[in-house]
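Hey, quick one: can you model this chain's 3D structure?
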Amino acid sequence: MSKRVLIVDDEESIRSALEQLLSFEKFKTFSAGDGISALDLVAEERIDIVLLDVKMPGMDGLEVLGKIKELHRDLPVIIISGHGTISTAVEATKLGAYDFIEKPFDTERLLLTIRNGLNQAELARRNVQLEKKIGITTEIIGAHPEMLAIMETINRVAPTNARVLIMGENGTGKELVARKLHELSKRSSEPFIEVNCAAIPEDLIESELFGHEKGSFTGAVSQRIGKFELADGGTLFLDEVGDMSLSAQAKVLRVLQESAFERVGGTETKHVDVRVIAATNKNLLEEAAKTRFREDLYYRLNVVPIRIPPLRERKSDIRILADYFLREVAVELGRSPKRLVSEALDALMDYSWPGNVRELRNLIERLCILTSTDVIGREDLPTLALVRDEDARKDPFGLKTYQEFKDFMEKEYLVKKLRENSGNVSRTARQLDMQRSNLYKKLEKYGIDFRQEPQGEDD
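Sure thing. Here's the predicted structure for all 459 residues.
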C-alpha cells in the first residue's frame, strides 16, 4: 500500500516538483498551499508523513506543526525551509519535528529522510499495537477433528486476501478465529479493526462503518473517520454481521465490489484496501429468505466458510481447555495453577455448555478465585455442572430430585428465551415480565454466559 505524503508549501512550483518526484517514487501525494488547508487534510485523510514549509502567509509552518502534533502526536513532520537558521531548527525540534531540511534540498537526502521518518512512525505504531495485544491470546485450543480441520483452513486461507465468513454460536470463539486469520496474514502489521454490528444502533451503523462529515445529521458536531478507513491496508472484522441494517448492507456490498465509498453526508469517494472477515450466530440464508439479509452480500462474504462447532459437539476438548484455562488464570492471578479432580472433570464433561467455551473459561476463573485449596473437587462446582444435561434432555423426569428437575427446566427455558432475543437481557426480562436484576441473578446461578451488548433504548 502506497504511503501518503502531505506537501505544504505556498509556492506552487515547489509543490508541483515534489508531487512529481514522490509520485515517481510510488508515494501517494496530497498538497496544500497554506496552513489551514493542511490542517483540514490532516483531519480528513490518513496521512503518513508531512513535508512542511516554514515561511507561509497567515499561519506559519511552526504554528501548523504545533497544531498537527495536537491532532496526531506520532505523525512525522519534516520541516523544509529556504531560510534555515539554527534557532528555527531548534524550535521545530522542540515542537516535535522529525527533521529539518534546507532548500534547495538534495533529492537523495530528502527521499532518505522521508523513508527514515516513515520507518520510525511504523515502529512507534507497532509498539502501540503490541501494547494493545498484551493479554489477548490468539491460540486456538483443541484436538477434536473439527477443530484441527478449522486450524488447517486458517493456515491455508490466512495468507490470501479471500473473505471469510465465520459461523457459530455465541461463545465459540469466532473473534479468536478472526484474529488468528489476521495474525497469519500478510496484513498482520496493519490494523485489525473490529465492529460489533449488533451493539451499534441501526441509525448509527453507517456512520460507524463509513464515517460522517460535520453537520451531516443531528449530533454530527465534528467529522468522523469510519472503520473502513481506519482498517485501510489491514483487516476489518464485522462481528454479528447478521444484525446489520439493510441500508448498511447495501453500502458494505458496494465496498466489497468497488473498494470505494463516501462518508455519510459527503460527496468525495474514498478508496480503501481492506480485507473483510465476517462472523454471525445466525443462518444468513434463512435470514435472506425472510428479507432480513441480502443474499448477494451473503455470497460476497462467504468465499471461505468456517463453522465453529459448539462445545457440546466437541466434548473431548473440554479437558484440554480446562487445563489451559487453569494455567492461564493462574498466570493472571499470580498464583500456582489449581487442579481439577477426576470427578470434577467428569461433571464438566457431562454438562452441555450453552455458553460454550466462554462459559467454561468464566467458570474456571470463578473456581480459581473462590476455591480455597489447590484442588478443585466436584463439591466446589455450582449446580450447573452437577446435572447431567444430556441425560436430562432425553428424560428430564429421570432426574433424582425435584430441585434438579426445577433447576434444569428453568435453565433450559431461560437459555431458549435469551436465544430468541439474541442474548439481549433487557428485552428478555421484559418479555418474561421479570426484573432485569433478577434475571441476571438467575444467569449467574446457572452459569449462563451470554455476551452483554449495549441495550440502547431497551435499558
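One thing worth noting: Residues 384-388, 451-459 have pLDDT under 50 and may be disordered.
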